[in-house]
Every structure is written in structure tokens, then in C-alpha cells.
Amino acid sequence: DIDDVGHKYYLELELEDVLDKDRTVNCTAEVLYHLGSKTSAPDVQVTVQGELRSTEEADKEFYNRIRSLEKELVAENIPDSHGNVPPELEPIHLLAWVASGYVIWQNSTENTKFHLAQVKHVKQVKRSDEDLQFDFVVLLHEMVSQEVLPWEVTLLWHPQHGARVPQSCAAAAGSS
């Protein structure tokens, strides 16, 4: 019986194509929130109806551009106060969205609804291996309580290995 384990929800979603903003793909998700567990993220099963376009070439181009920078990338307030994301920072915004997704799944309950509001600060950290590392301070808007919560998130990314979040924690309100 599902009520002994947790609560299961079925969602129908529309995903926006990252490469073509006018194109969407339908998907369904099954989300299981475990009863009494504050430490485990919900189990999610997603089925995509249709095909998402490959980002392989754009990923390689971004990776090579960032690896070739003489100084580490540093940026703030993405999007800006008018909702604009400069085209050259769009990949950083997307990586922040992925990192925030990890934080959201790890900290969601049935009574929360988080949304990435803004990348307050991002700094690239040079590494000796092949990964790109970005240390983010993201602002998550909790829609139910209307709180804006700052989170520090470290994201490692490589076009062949995808994104990984080795650490994240709630940040002090004045962090940047």
C-alpha cells in the first residue's frame, strides 16, 4: 500500500527545449515522497514523449571557451533585475538551474514549492582535472512561504560526464 511508504503524485509537464525556446516536449512524472523521512529526496520517474535535441556541440563549445579563459569566470545577478540573461551567460544560468534542481529535490517536501529566482553570484574555480567547477550562491524562492533562501552550491561539470553537485548548504542571508 502506497500510504505506508509515502505519497505518490502524477504530474504532466511541458519541457521547453533549451536550444529552441519555441519548442516544447511533453513529459509525465511520478513523484513519491517518503513518509517521515526528512533526509531522503523524493523518488522521481520521468517519461519524455518525443525527442529533446542534442546539446553536444553547444556543450563542447562552452566547455572549450571556459577552459581557455585566462581569468576565472565571475558573474553576479543572473538574470538581472529586468529578467535578462546575457547570451554568453546562458550556459551558466542553465548549470545553475541544474545545481538548484539538485538542492530542490534534496530539500523538498509535500508542502514546499521551490523555484530558482536568481544566481546571486558565481565563481569558476580552476581545477587540475578535466572538470569545470562553479561555486554558486543561488536564491531559491519558496512559493508557499514566499521566503527567498540563499544556497551555496558547488557544481562540477564536464560535457561527457554531466553535472555533479558534491556539496550544497543553506547560506547566510548576506552571502555573495
UniProtKB/TrEMBL annotation:
PROSITE patterns documented for this protein: CYSTATIN_LXN
GO cellular component: extracellular space
Transmembrane feature ranges: none
InterPro entries, A to Z: CYSTATIN_LXN, Cystatin_sf, Latexin
Keyword flag Repeat: yes
Sorted UniProt keywords: Protease inhibitor, Repeat
Cited Gene3D superfamilies: 3.10.450.10
Cystatin LXN-type domain ranges (all copies): 1-57, 74-176
Pfam families per UniProt: LXN
GO MF annotation terms: metalloendopeptidase inhibitor activity
Family assignment from sequence similarity: Belongs to the protease inhibitor I47 (latexin) family.
PANTHER family hit by this protein: LATEXIN
Name the UniProt record assigns to this protein: LXN protein
The gene coding this protein: Lxn
